[in-house]
Amino acid sequence: MRARTLAAATAAVLAVAGLGAPGAVAAPSALADDFNGDGYRDLAIGTPKASGGTVTVLFGSASGVSPARSVNITQNTPGVPGTSESEDKFGENVTSGDVDGDGYADLIVGAPFEQVTGKPRGSVTIVWGGPTPFTSGGMTLTAPTGEAFAFGEGTAFADIDGDGTGNLVVIGADTFWWYADGKPTQDGALAPEVGFLPENVLLDGVVAGHFSGTDGSDYVLHGRKMDPDNGTTGNYVGLLRGGPGDLGRSYSVLAEGTAPQGASWAPAVDGGDINGDGYDDLVTGNTAVGQGGSFTVRYGKATGLPVTGTTYTQASAGVPGTDERYDNFGAAVAVGDATGDGRADVAVGASYETVDGHSNVGNIVFLKGGSGGLTTSGAQSFHQATSGVPGAAEAGDHFGSSLRLRDINGNGRADLAVGAFGEDVLPNGYDDGAAWVLRGATTGLTSTYATAFNATDFDYPVVDGRRFADTFGR
């Protein structure tokens, strides 16, 4: 009954939005984030801070995205397993992939604080895509063992063993799990054959990519490592190489403790092929380096990622802005090919940047990839006082607090989604949050046809501190 109710409600939304109704079948595109199979990547937005958490999916099209073509999903949505509770953090991380093998991308949502009777906190919900996406219900996975606290803190979907089929990966606070080919089952969680995580690590996310010459995907795990002697924490980044064989035996620590090239939080880590050599490169942001923050690029190669990379601050030649205290440059990063030249570019958020004398307005910096790696030539900067960007530069907006670079209009150039958790939308609102989309162009990003939307565009109830668009699906 619940699945039929979800199907009817969602089908009505899709029909109004021109996405098709039951009986109108789209051929699957096999894109990792195309939930309705129409050949356009879709934009998933996580808002985990209020009312248990919400994921909003805006469907891509030749004209980009619009709230008129969207669906809201919570744990109270009919057909979606679970119940929405204030502490769940449903949408803390969002990813996608064809989990059930039907050719359509499925929505994968982490809720690391989900309360499960008799088990540690945490769950992962998979909502099935299809010709009329999210109308066929879904499934939930919970912690497989008593040690898997915060199960769902991070998720990824990629081919772990090189057999050509994707696998679901889920991390907890200090555990790593993967599932065999096909639909995952509650008792199907697999641990690596070789334990690799050191003690006192608290993970915050996982990023999959072809960072080395192994068959299948590699995984960058990142978070914090605590010093048991004094209780302080520092950044932690490690590389787990995939491929057939004993998973876990090939693991290397890239940064830990006070290492300047580390990263803690999920928005500050992403990967893509910046120099076009066939290997993905890792970008990590670290707000504690320099006066106002930094990011580091490590270039992938057959043997894996190096421990040392190239670090940039706003004092680096060609990088827009000034290296000032508390800018939080590097608090969010995104990697994708915005210019369409076959090499990934990098966007970096400075969510506490001062603009036009207003503090904590926020700003993003865009730098291009090239055959020699990342270049500062032609670098760009955007904020809410930039011509063409909707809105106004107001104190406390935190523009650039979350980022995502993916092609949502199908023109071969990635578009940048930007979150601002502190944007106040409602009268006397507080941290309502909002999102923008800047289009990719051959010369870089452009504010032409830039769009913006917030929670009120999706009929959400008014909740202080909602922080709409706190995360984007990767």
Question: Can you describe what's shown?
Answer:
- The protein is mainly beta and 474 residues long.
- Helices cover 3% and strands 34% of the residues.
- The chain has one helix and 27 strands.
- The protein has one helix spanning 2-16, and strands at 43-47, 54-58, 70-73, 93-97, 106-111, 123-127, 138-142, 154-158, 167-171, 176-178, 201-209, 218-226, 233-240, 251-257, 269-272, 281-286, 294-298, 310-312, 329-336, 345-350, 363-368, 375-382, 399-406, 415-420, 434-441, 444-454, 471-472.
- The strands form seven sheets. The chain has a four-stranded antiparallel beta sheet. Strands 4-5-6-7 form a four-stranded antiparallel beta sheet, with no helix packed on it. Strands 11-12-13-14 form a four-stranded antiparallel beta sheet, with no helix packed on it.
- The longest helix has 15 residues, at 2-16.
- The relative contact order is 0.11.
Characteristic terms for this protein:
474 residues, disordered N terminus, mainly beta, four-stranded antiparallel sheet, 3% helix
Kindly summarize this structure in a few lines:
By secondary structure, the chain is mainly β. Helix content is 3%, strand content 34%.
Please outline the helices and strands.
Layout: H1 2-16, E1 43-47, E2 54-58, E3 70-73, E4 93-97, E5 106-111, E6 123-127, E7 138-142, E8 154-158, E9 167-171, E10 176-178, E11 201-209, E12 218-226, E13 233-240, E14 251-257, E15 269-272, E16 281-286, E17 294-298, E18 310-312, E19 329-336, E20 345-350, E21 363-368, E22 375-382, E23 399-406, E24 415-420, E25 434-441, E26 444-454, E27 471-472
Antiparallel strand pairs: 1-2, 1-27, 2-3, 4-5, 5-6, 6-7, 8-9, 9-10, 11-12, 12-13, 13-14, 15-16, 16-17, 17-18, 19-20, 20-21, 21-22, 23-24, 24-25, 25-26
